[in-house]
Automatic annotation (TrEMBL):
Domain of life: Bacteria
Protein name: Uncharacterized protein
InterPro entries: SAM-dependent_MTases_sf
Pfam family, one: Methyltransf_24
Species assigned in the record: Neoroseomonas lacus
Length: 227
């Protein structure tokens, strides 16, 4: 898969997320064996960069289509990265990474120990409410106190997508309402489930006006909550 990074056709998705890398760099300053999660790998740009940054420290969980993970695994194996755990799902219409996350949460609850597992999560999935809303809720339970979740494409909508907008892909009108096409689904998820949760604090990642990504830190049990 990583050969796609040099294809000019993929220039817009071949650059790693610098926000994700900076947040993991900060994490490594306090945790030498972090547990990191990435939901949605694209063509592996951020994934490969995170692997290099971790340098086989801790554990790196990947969630995406099984076919994508199967393409990526030989590349990461060949580069010597042995700390990666793969969680694949099918391409059936209503299957997605949120099912794998649900199974992980169930298993951790049944085990009777600590449920939270992730120190850092990068959610870069379908950017669609019916996939990413349940994923966000599951990830909130799976994130450790002090951990950070980074949402990608906070400002994205089907309407502004070069490949999914109705003029290019009219079939989208059969699946979503006009309001759903125009609304940034990730922003809606953050508005509903993150911004008003007293256990989460927005992290300043450098934006001053228009946000493309948004990050939140889960407060520890002894940290003060907003009044």
């Amino acid at each position: 898969m990583l050969e796609k990074l040099t294809d000019p056709a993929n220039v817009h998705i071949s650059t790693p997320s610098q926000h994700a890398l900076k947040l993991i760099e900060a994490l490594l300053e306090r945790e030498q064996q972090p547990v990191v999660c990435e939901v949605g790998i694209g063509i592996g740009a951020t994934t490969a960069a995170i692997c290099r940054l971790l340098a086989n420290r801790g554990t790196y969980h990947l969630f995406d289509y099984s076919s994508r993970l199967d393409d990526l695994k030989p590349d990461l194996d060949g580069l010597g990265f042995t700390n990666v755990v793969y969680h694949g799902n099918s391409r059936r219409k209503l299957d997605s990474y949120n099912w794998a996350l649900a199974q992980m949460l169930l298993a951790r609850r049944a085990a009777g120990g600590a449920v939270p597992v992730f120190d850092f999560v990068f959610l870069d999935g379908a950017h669609a409410f019916h996939h990413d809303a349940p994923a966000a809720l599951l990830l909130k339970d799976l994130l450790k106190p002090g951990g950070v979740i980074l949402f990608d494409d906070y400002d994205w909508s089907f309407a502004i997508s070069p490949t999914m907008n109705p003029a290019v892909f009219p079939q989208i009108l059969e699946v979503y309402t006009d309001e759903q096409i125009k609304t940034p689904h990730v922003r809606l998820i953050c508005d509903l489930f993150m911004d008003h949760d007293p256990d989460y604090q927005k992290v300043d990642i450098g934006y001053r006006s228009h946000e493309h990504r948004r990050a939140y830190r889960k407060l520890g049990p002894k940290e003060p909550r907003p009044a």
